[in-house]
Amino acid sequence: MALRLPTLSSLGGLFNRRDPRQEASLALARMISQFDMEAMPYREGLRQNRRDDQSRHVGIGVWLVPLNDGQDPDKADMSKAIPGATCDLRRHGIGVLMPVKLNSLRFIVAIADAEDTWRYCLVEKKHQSKRSGGWYQLGFSVDRIWEPDTLQILAFRKRVENAFQD
What we know:
The chain has helices at about 5-15, 20-40, 150-160, and strands at about 60-65, 80-90, 95-100, 105-110, 120-130, 135-145. The protein is α+β, with helices and mostly antiparallel strands and about 170 residues long. Strands 1-2-3-6-5-4 form a 6-stranded antiparallel beta barrel. The chain starts with 5 loop residues before the first helix and ends with a helix.
């Protein structure tokens, strides 16, 4: 039976610290690669490393949950999610098109990957630009991956299911 030694565990943590921003960046890179692989013809344009910082014009539906200043995401009301669409994805950020101007500085972004698994990221708004047709483009930097609790997931799923019903 292995015995956990607190001193050794804290020393090991000193050299292997988790970086939430790096983990979020890698999660976005995996999603981008997933969408790139679906659109790529067989054996054409393959590269050794698919993870780079080039922006991809990938249009997928996302949901934004605005957070008030200093609000803990664990207390966010997921039933207030607003639909939007990505206009570009990169490892460190997301560009989203919205039909309304949003004043919050921090958001939860819910993104479904190619297998309809929802991923939630905490993001910070870097810019908001007016686009033609009354749309706004928001640029977000990704801070970290976030996991909602069960009640928040249920509220979010209910919001998504009932969003466009007559």
